[in-house]
Amino acid sequence: MVEVKEEPVSSRKIQKAEREKIRRDKLKEQFLELGDALDPNRPKSDKTSIIIDTIQILKDLMTQVDRLKAEYVALSEESREVDD
């Protein structure tokens, strides 16, 4: 009878798996933190919902920034007219 020796898992594979688990855990924590930043009282959400909500909030903020810039320009021009 021939004995088949099982090769032990190499330490590199173990280290890679450990690094990957650390990376996944860190990513999970960052998603939870982002979800809490969006709405701390929201029920636990999946990653897709968190990303979709974040994109919408960023779009809304960019629109608000554009509106405020335009308002600033208009008020600056009005201020110059008053000073003249």
Overview of the molecule:
This protein has a single domain, classed as MYOD Basic-Helix-Loop-Helix Domain, subunit B, CATH 4.10.280. Helix content is 77%, strand content 0%. The protein is built from two helices and no strands. It has helices at residues 11-38, 47-83. The N and C termini lie far apart (104 Å). Keywords: DNA-binding, Nucleus, Transcription, Transcription regulation. InterPro entries: bHLH11/121 (IPR044579), bHLH_dom (IPR011598), bHLH_IRO3 (IPR057075), HLH_DNA-bd_sf (IPR036638).
Write down how many β-strands occur, each being a DSSP E stretch of 2 or more residues: 0
**Percent helix among the residues?**
over 70%
Measured between the Cα atoms of the first and last residue, the distance is 104 Å
Radius of gyration: 27 Å
What structural class do the secondary elements suggest? mainly alpha
- In the CATH scheme, the class would be Few Secondary Structures
Give the topology string: H per helix, E per strand: HH
Measured by DSSP, the beta-strand proportion falls in: under 5%
Oligomer: single chain
Report the uncertain regions: none
Mean pLDDT: 89
Shape summary: elongated
CATH topology: MYOD Basic-Helix-Loop-Helix Domain, subunit B
Subcellular location: Nucleus
InterPro entries: bHLH11/121 (IPR044579), bHLH_dom (IPR011598), bHLH_IRO3 (IPR057075), HLH_DNA-bd_sf (IPR036638)
GO molecular function, one term: DNA binding
GO cellular component, one term: nucleus
